[in-house]
Amino acid sequence: MGDHVILILIDMDTIEVSNLNRQFLFRKWHVGQSKAKVAREAVLKFKPDISITAYHANVKDPEFNVDFFKQFNVVLNGLDNLDARRHVNRLCLAADIPLVESGTTGFLGQVTVHVKGRTECYECQPKPTPKSYPVCTITSTPSKFVHCIVWAKDLLFAKLFGDKNQDNDLNIHSTDATNPSNNVEDVFEYKADEDSDQYGRRIYDHVFGYNIDLALANEETWKNRRKPTPLYLKDVMPKQLAKENGKLDKQKLADSVAVSAMSSLGLKNPQDIWNLEENTKIFLEAMKLFIEGREKDIGNLTFDKDDQLSVEFVTAAANIRASSFGIPMHSLFEAKGIAGNIVHAIATTNAIIAGLIVLEAIKVLQNDAENYRMTYCLEHPSRKMLLMPVEPFEPNKSCYVCSENPLSLEVNTLTTKLKDVVEKIVRSKLGMNSPMIMLGASLIFEVGDDLDEDEAANYASNLEKVLAKLPTPVTSGTMLKVEDLQQELSCNINIKHRDEFDEEKEPDGMVLSGWIQPSERQTQTTNNGEATSNAPASTSSPDDSDDLEILDTEPITLSGNKRKVAEISMTGDSGPFKKSSATTNSIVVDIENENGQPALDAADDDVVVMVHDESVHRKKARSQ
Amino acid sequence: MLIDTQNKMNGEELTEQETALYDRQIRIWGADAQRRLSKSHILVSGITGTIVEFCKNVVLAGIGSLTLMDDRLVSEKDLLVNFLIPPDEDKYKEKTIAEVCSDSLRDFNPMVSVSFEKGSLSGCEDGFFDKFDTVIIGRCSLNNKKEMNIKCRKRQKKIAFYTVDCRDSCGEIFVDLQSCKYQKKTVDGTAECFMQYPSFEEAISVSWSSLPKNVSKMYFAMRVIEKFEQDAGRNPGETSSEDLQKLLEFWQNMCQTNSLKESLIPVALLERLLVFTEEHPPVCAIIGGILGQEVIKAISGKGEPLKNFFFFDAATGKGTIEDISPRTDG
Cis ω on the peptide bond leading into residue B308 (within 30° of 0)? Predict the structure, then answer.
């Protein structure tokens, strides 16, 4: 019979060694190549007669618009970040194409089916946004190791090796405004006659010693908290202080295959937990290696978990800070996992989820709508079940994505700039990629390649204005219309002015609401999350392996109880290439992105598989 | 705890290559479990689509060695469910399935030793089993299952025994770990637990009327099909719609002899398993995944292994564990 399937793969990522323990279409010699392209080649090897196109691209690119999606009978997601999933969800709704979503973390996984009008869309149930921490916890009062990692990665590392023009909270302490900050910026600049050793030591003493002493001066902060111990080199490593290392042999550095403080110091095992002195040595050695061996990188580095030296630096810095605050230290292996938001993954769970995805996809292709289901793969059986099917729920009538529910935004219209609303609400919370913002008939803001100079300048200047002072003032009682044409999503947001916001509970300084809680029954299901490893049915208790960005965002406040949803997270890295039996129409390939970075990270990875079936035959799902 | 210390004292560490390749799974089960995996030796006999999925999973996971046994030549049907067989006839003709699959599997992880043995498992002498710590039988006859299980149990060394069979869009796994110690995560850390497994024969001898009402129908249906094939002298899976009448009579007789109600097994289920004996690839992946996980758990000693049957039916979407053990056992 002429069953003909056309398969499209979209993935922006390249293959890494750590993928190979489960992404079995790839081999060692493929490392560095495009996942989509290599997957396609691997498939053709054992199924030469199928039509398969690979795009090494980001699924959020404008070329993948509604018309593009309309070509398909079904879309299968193997994405690993919320942002991309929401984007595809909206496109599938706009194109009215069924979407099979999925995710895995370790032993847990799930597959869900989303059909416009018939079931919930992916966003009907609020998905927790990546965990964020209040700025003061990171800068002044860490209590967990993850806080130290965030400090080391997003503050110290960024300050020393990242973009100098970026705002950085490193020297901001408590809300005590009397800290003299006029000399702060100078600390991180090289002094005239300083060599890399001296610089490193000075920085060490400044961030681990002096800054802590400064913080201790504010008694209020430590009333009910354990006081941190300032750490100075003279106390931590008194013998080393006199040693003059001199400049490293530049030639040696150039020749070395991997610049690594661990190798330099002979610390071989990434699973060892170094003591304070070892961490200090790694810290100083890493600093030296960056300054002398990677000068050209300094000033434009962002943390990359695959950059050994960066990981060593962040581990050491986090550990020293942890030591100071009485928090247990961690091995490089563990620290890397936290700092890199690494998601644990194995071939078996992915195989199970892949099989389940295919079963649902077949149902879609055969219009077997009555039998669509959501399936959860559990680590520990529940009522004897390791695989638990649940009927899909009806669409949430107050979902602002698939039902047009208006939202409300509480914000200080006199002090909040438009750009903050665009970043924190429109892009982040609402997940819009290319937003357009209107007030009545006035276009306040839009993005696009085709804007002329005047328009672009106008929007740029609008971004810098506070809401109430925009040419068309956005004040309490007005309503913004926010749209993303590519996603075909339109939202109305009612503006309510509020003067004060709680720094800890509302770190964004604005609160979006109006999304009514789905019913009790629906709260049983688990949600996709991101790079977290909570088991279903547990309340998501903060965990050292949680996401780490200092995001100034908070999960959308729901009117009603703020239910903590259990999460099974993401990546649909599913393995097998299913050979189609003569009667089935679909072949599935899901590929995963290694990064597992939360939504706002630029290093996204998109895996979307679309199946275009030219001749859908009505066959029983089980027929052979 | 003690096992961990001993391993560290042995001074064996994972190589840099292993740490890089297995990073994502070491983050789940730890370096010690990974080491234990790398020392395991697994035998699979009867290469079906599901078995192939399983093989892929454990090879990727980094076991020590995998040995395949299946003297059959590749057929058209195999091509439909077995992704390890290259579609090019020149590449597989004259070769047994075991050989073709071993060749493909080696590519998946060069650190695992993959080989094949000629002959059939039932023809092997008892000592042959001692090479392995885990034996898995793909679809085979009732008597073979019992026999292989007993042979494994008789060995001094403890050999973990599994059978797996998928038909239509269903699958069954049987697990026999004899006596098993494992580490279970508790609120305070880990606790050591102990489980005792019945042999296959002991399990299927448990009287059906003594089993709880909610036991998966698939358990019963598979036993009926199994016995029917055995008594009719058929190879497993060699049945068709023409046998339906005979099967139903067979089942009726069973009910009379054992005082069972015919309604215990829906006819539709029996029919499915009888007529549609081919495997369904996505189900192979699911069952192969569950089996892979179980074998890894048993080898690593981490996590509670399932006892002692697992069933999946795509029609219901449920993947269920059933404990079919004689009551007198602990």
Answer: yes
The enclosing H or E element of A75 equals strand A74-77
A21 touches chain B (CB under 8 A): yes
A14 contacts A603 by C-beta, under 8 angstroms:
no
CA-derived radius of gyration, chain B: 20
Q: How far apart are CA A570 and CA A550, in angstroms?
A: 21
Task: Give the other-Cβ count within 10 Å of A267's Cβ.
Answer: 19
Q: Which amino acid is at A308?
A: Q
Place of tokens 């699924």: A59
Predicted confidence (pLDDT) at residue A439 exceeds the cutoff of 70: yes
- Measured between alpha carbons, how far is A58 from A87 in angstroms, rounded to an integer? 11
Complex-level ipTM beyond the 0.85 threshold: yes
Who has greater pLDDT, B177 or A194? B177
Q: What is the pLDDT of residues A447-472, one digit of tens each?
A: 988 889 999 999 999 999 999 999 99
Q: Tell me if A17 and B20 make a contact (CB, 8 A cut-off).
A: yes
- Chain B residue at shortest CA distance from A338: B27
- Burial profile A366-399: b = 16 or more Cβ within 10 angstroms, e = fewer: beeeebbbbbbbbbebeebbbbbbbebbebbebb
How crowded is residue B118: how many other Cβ atoms within 10 Å of its Cβ?
11
Are A282 and A312 within 8 A, CB to CB?
Answer: yes
Residues 6+ apart with CB under 8 A from A49: none
Tell me the two tokens of residue A440.
Answer: 């009545």
Whether residue A136 lies in the annotated active site: yes
Residue A53 CB coordination number (10 Å) = 13
Rounded to the nearest angstrom, the minimum Cα separation between B257 and chain A is 30
Q: Give the contacts of A491 (CB within 8 A, at least 6 positions apart).
A: A400, A404, A406, A407, A430, A481, A482, A483
Q: CA geometry: angle at A514 spanning A510 and A519, to 5°?
A: 130
Write out the E strands in A413-487.
Answer: 435-439, 442-446, 479-484
Residue A573: closest CA among A29, A35, A50, A8: A35
Interchain CB distance below 8 Å, A351 and B57: yes
CA distance A80 to A594: 9
The average confidence (pLDDT) of chain B is 92
DSSP B143-211: HHHHHHHHHHHHSSS--EEEEEEEEBTEEEEEEE-SEEEEEEEETTEEEEEEEE---HHHHHHS-GGGS
Burial of A65 (0-12, 13-18, 19+ CB in 10 A): middle
Euclidean distance between CA atoms A364 and B109, whole angstroms = 35
Whether residue B24 lies within 8 A of chain A, CB to CB, comes out as: yes
- Is A583 within 8 Å of chain B by CB? no
Residue A80 has pLDDT above 70, yes or no: yes
Question: Which residues in chain A (218-237) have CB-CB distances under 8 A to chain B?
Answer: none
B215 Cβ under 8 Å from any chain A Cβ:
no
Q: Are A576 and A354 within 8 A, CB to CB?
A: yes
More confident residue, A181 or B266: B266
Q: What is the pLDDT of residue A587?
A: 21
Q: Provide the chain A residues 138-197 that lie in CB contact (below 8 A) with chain B.
A: none
- Note the pLDDT of residue A613: 53
Does residue B56 belong to the interface with chain A, where contact is any CB pair within 8 Å? yes
Q: CB-side exposure of B161: number of CA atoms within 13 Å?
A: 25
CA distance A388 to chain B (A): 5
Question: And the tokens for A607?
Answer: 């895996």
| Residue B135, strand partner residues | B43, B161
Q: Distance (Å, rounded) from C-alpha B184 to C-alpha B190?
A: 5
- How many other C-beta atoms can be found within 10 angstroms of the C-beta atom of residue B209? 10
